[in-house]
From TrEMBL:
This is UDP-glucose 4-epimerase. It comes from Salinarimonas ramus. Residues 195-206 have a biased composition (Basic residues). Residues 207-225 have a biased composition (Low complexity). It comes from the Bacteria. Residues 3-179 form the NAD-dependent epimerase/dehydratase domain. Residues 195-225 are annotated as: Disordered. Belongs to the NAD(P)-dependent epimerase/dehydratase family. Pathway: Carbohydrate metabolism; galactose metabolism.
């Protein structure tokens, strides 16, 4: 059994790849490399460069590699950019998830993990936020992810798909062995990849620390069927 990881050359996706490889699982990565980088994909893991919305490509990858599970990390994630380009975010995060999900169901995928965001909660008037807090996103990024969550839940109910949805708060850090970390030139994550590794990829070493208007009480929340 092979796991297909979309966005596996990106920050969070690369860590999922490493975790599965370390556990002895077979993995194939699908990434368009718009923000991800090839060196993030471990040696020996197949990398298919392409669009997750390319149904024919997804079908071929699933068939050739014997994929049964999909972990979907590919997305646009910058909140200010989503406000400036909402349609681009609904396309990248919602429409492409819909296309991937349709191809997955047609190919007989059994399990689907979706990388969402704590931005679906908006700014609730709560001392702490857990996964049972009502979603109320305040920007196109959060809304694009919440719409994808709804699609996945509805598709699961109709087709018997097992799924999990991951909602992250502030994601930071790198692989303890230095194999992966934040490498984007305009990263909005707090802690970035070690300079020596990013330099090898031709990336800049300068980083800035993002700010937030309120503290978050949990690192991530998970909902599942």
């Amino acid at each position: 059994m092979t796991v297909l990881i979309t966005g596996g050359a990106g920050y969070i996706g690369a860590h999922a790849v490493l975790a599965l490889v370390d556990a002895g699982e077979d993995v194939v990565v699908l990434d368009d490399l718009s923000t991800g980088v090839r060196p993030m994909v471990p040696e020996g893991v197949p990398l298919v460069v392409g669009d997750v919305a390319n149904s024919a490509l997804v079908t071929r990858v699933v068939g050739e590699h014997g994929v049964k599970d999909i972990m979907h990390f590919a997305a646009k994630i910058v909140v200010p950019e989503s406000v400036a380009d909402p349609l681009g975010y609904y396309d990248a995060n919602t429409m492409k998830t819909r296309a991937l999900l349709a191809a997955a169901l047609a190919a007989g995928i059994e399990r689907f993990v979706f990388s969402s965001t704590a931005a679906v909660y908006g700014e609730p008037d709560l001392a702490t936020i857990d996964e049972d807090a009502p979603p109320a996103p305040i920007n196109p990024y959060g809304r694009s992810k919440l719409m994808s969550e709804w699609m996945i839940r509805d598709a699961a109910a109709a087709h018997g798909l097992d799924y999990a949805i991951l909602r992250y708060f502030n994601v930071a850090g790198a692989d303890p062995k230095g194999r992966a970390g934040q490498s984007a030139t305009n990263a909005t994550h707090l802690i970035r990849w070690p300079r020596r590794r990013r330099s090898a990829c031709g990336r800049r070493s300068r980083s800035t620390a993002p700010t937030t208007r309120r503290p978050t009480a949990r690192a991530c929340a998970t909902t599942s069927r």
